[in-house]
């Protein structure tokens, strides 16, 4: 036993419940909500390291200060000494990263679940598409998603979207007509934003600042937590960091979670529960398991860290656009979610936004001459005769086993725990097709441009993997996975991991709807257990 463990196990306040959920992000919110419907009266405690930011009434003010002074719209949503190399979002608060997500809720496609059997790549998921699709519908209902049915037969849904789609702005209508000249079908991107009052929240006003929504139209997990707390259905301990899971003597169960109260100078709390659920997101779930030396008989905790890569560009086109109408909304084509077998593998989404790139007013012309008054306006007018679109493709890349989250002994938090370090490593097949993938995607951008006398400019490639996942991948074989398809760890029968960490691969589009769908699927099994 380490010295820090001895300290952890003495003189702690003990808190008991039926289910102890560690982490208070969107996955935990959805899990708690569903568990309480399946088993009313279940004693659920949610332990969240960050603070409660239940101040929807202040959001208009934060938004204003962020617009006027460039201030952080989410002050206090992170923990100073709880960070890690390669962790792309610092948010640690009740609600997690989805406090300020964009609310884009694309589904993955059947191919994501069958990469191995279809293409001989990466791994199959131990979940059938029809099963996941059912849980997508449920996730969309719970989050409140507005969207329009897709044009492709593969995108058939078993239920309509809960809400009518967000109307396309004038700019997006022009861009849709332009983009479809390429022969590719486009539709408005589905979003967890209300187009009518829904879930006790208002309809979207299209004010264009979705990372801080002043109306509550964009789903945010703090609403769910507040509803559950107001109804007295959950216990929420915020500012409480779980540092270790303690195993039973025979190692088959988790006996307790040992935590410290950040708001009370490190006062210790011991959580005891029949069932423990790790809902701590892609970085901190594997981190806690590694710190606890738990669930890792396979040696795969923190391995196969996944995400998708991306390439973006701007396209100049023959159309007059008026940037600023609703930059948060976009078009998507799902044409390339599918890839035939027997041809070079490439899968990606394709998004189109209005753009003001190169079209903002400027005080100096290209030669550096000062522009004022009429000269400024004349310069601005000439540069807006043609419009611009922003395009981006998230593309499917697969992690190798070496794609790892490890404990970095050289960086510790104030409690002396080593912090995580994530290094993404793609598998050989992904690396071998990298150049061809790039060429294909740039070819698609070119196809869009050429369909309307356009020009591609400002091509850029992502330097990280977006919508990260993995680290506790699901599977049927305990030798090659950390948990089963419901997130139950192979090693400890009362320990589940939910959401993003359990994904074997991370698709080629925004991941959160999928994280929530697999969490809701886990909820049924957790309720049964
Ligand atoms: C700016 C931005 C925009 C985004 N837009 C989109 C989008 O449009 N569409 C989309 O699909 N996704 C989007 N995302 C990603 C999305 O926000 C995340 O995928 C999602 O919120 C992850 O939820 P989660 O519940 O898995 O984890 P998290 O939100 O990370 O929640 C986990 C929680 O666990 C807590 N925790 C961790 N360890 C411990 C511990 N040991 N003890 C106690 N608590 C702990 C953390 O503090 C955290 O609050 C966006 C992200 C950002 C940052
Ligand atoms: S555009 Fe809609 S969802 Fe976005 S911030 Fe405004 S009201 Fe909220």
Q: How far apart lie the N and C ends? A: 31 Å
Instruction: Tell me the Rg in angstroms.
Output: 24 Å
Unreliable runs: 1-7
Give the tally of β-strands. 16
Strand content: 15-25%
Main sheet summary? 7 strands, mixed
Helix count equals: 13
Global morphology? globular
* SS content category: alpha+beta
Q: Could you spell the SSE succession in H and E letters?
A: HEHEHHHHHEHEEEEHEEEHEEEHHEEEH
Helix proportion: 25-40%
Bound molecules: flavin-adenine dinucleotide, iron/sulfur cluster
Q: Whole-number average pLDDT?
A: 95
Can you put this structure into words, describing what you see?
The protein is an alpha+beta fold and 529 residues long. Residues 1-7 have low confidence and may be disordered. Helix 2 runs parallel beside helix 8. It is globular, with a radius of gyration of 24 Å. Strands 1, 2, 4, 5, 6, 7 and 16 form a seven-stranded mixed beta sheet that branches. It has 13 helices and 16 strands. It is 26% helix and 21% strand. The longest helix is centred in the last third of the chain and has 17 residues, at 434-450. Flavin-adenine dinucleotide binds next to helix 2, strand 5, helix 9 and helix 13. Flavin-adenine dinucleotide (FAD) binds at residues 22-27, 47-50, 89, 92-93, 96-98, 100-104, 211, 241-242, 279-281, 284, 288, 467, 499-500, 510-512, 515.
């Amino acid at each position: 036993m380490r010295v820090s463990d001895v300290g952890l196990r003495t003189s702690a306040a003990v808190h008991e419940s039926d289910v102890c959920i560690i982490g208070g992000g969107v996955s935990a919110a959805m899990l708690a909500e569903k568990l309480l419907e399946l088993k009313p009266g279940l004693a659920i405690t949610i332990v969240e390291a960050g603070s409660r930011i239940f101040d929807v009434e202040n959001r208009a003010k934060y938004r204003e200060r962020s617009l006027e002074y460039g201030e952080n719209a989410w002050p206090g949503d992170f923990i100073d000494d709880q960070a890690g190399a390669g962790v792309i979002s610092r948010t640690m608060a009740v609600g997690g990263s989805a406090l300020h997500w964009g609310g884009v809720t694309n589904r993955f496609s059947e191919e994501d679940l069958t990469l191995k059997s279809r293409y001989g790549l990466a791994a199959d998921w131990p979940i059938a598409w029809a099963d996941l699709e059912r849980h997508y519908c449920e996730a969309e209902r719970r989050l409140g998603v507005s969207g329009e049915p897709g044009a492709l037969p593969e995108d058939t849904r078993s239920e309509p979207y809960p809400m009518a789609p967000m109307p396309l702005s004038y700019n997006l209508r022009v861009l849709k007509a332009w983009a479809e000249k390429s022969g590719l079908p486009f539709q408005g991107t589905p979003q967890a934003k209300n187009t009518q009052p829904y879930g006790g929240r208002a309809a979207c006003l299209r004010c264009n600042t979705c990372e801080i929504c002043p109306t509550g139209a964009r789903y945010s997990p703090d609403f769910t937590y507040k509803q559950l707390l107001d109804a007295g259905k959950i216990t929420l301990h915020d500012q409480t960091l779980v540092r270790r899971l303690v195993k039973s003597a025979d190692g088959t169960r988790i006996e307790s979670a040992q935590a410290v109260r950040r708001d009370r100078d490190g006062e210790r709390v011991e959580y005891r529960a029949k069932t423990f659920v790790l809902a701590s997101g892609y970085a901190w779930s594997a981190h806690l398991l590694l710190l606890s030396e738990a669930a890792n008989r396979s040696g795969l905790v923190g391995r196969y860290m996944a995400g998708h890569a991306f390439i973006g560009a701007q396209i100049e086109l023959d159309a007059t656009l008026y940037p600023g109408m609703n930059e948060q909304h976009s078009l998507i084509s799902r044409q390339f979610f599918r890839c035939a077998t027997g041809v070079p593998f490439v899968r990606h989404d394709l998004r189109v936004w209005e753009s003001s790139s190169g079209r903002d007013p400027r005080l100096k012309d290209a030669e550096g001459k000062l522009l004022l008054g009429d000269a400024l306006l004349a310069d601005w007018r000439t540069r807006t005769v043609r419009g611009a679109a922003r395009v981006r493709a998230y593309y499917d890349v697969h992690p190798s086993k070496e794609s790892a989250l490890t404990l970095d002994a050289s960086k510790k938090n104030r409690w002396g725990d080593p912090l995580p370090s994530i290094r993404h490593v793609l598998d050989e097949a992904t690396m071998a097709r990298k150049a061809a993938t790039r060429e294909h995607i740039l070819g698609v951008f070119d196809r869009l441009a050429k369909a309307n006398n356009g020009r591609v400019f400002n091509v850029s490639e992502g330097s990280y993997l977006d919508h990260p996942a993995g680290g506790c991948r699901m599977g049927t074989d305990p030798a090659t996975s950390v948990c089963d398809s419901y997130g139950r760890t192979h090693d400890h029968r009362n320990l589940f991991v939910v959401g993003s960490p359990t994904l074997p691969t991370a698709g080629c589009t925004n991941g959160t709807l999928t994280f929530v769908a697999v969490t809701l699927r886990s909820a049924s099994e957790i309720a049964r257990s």
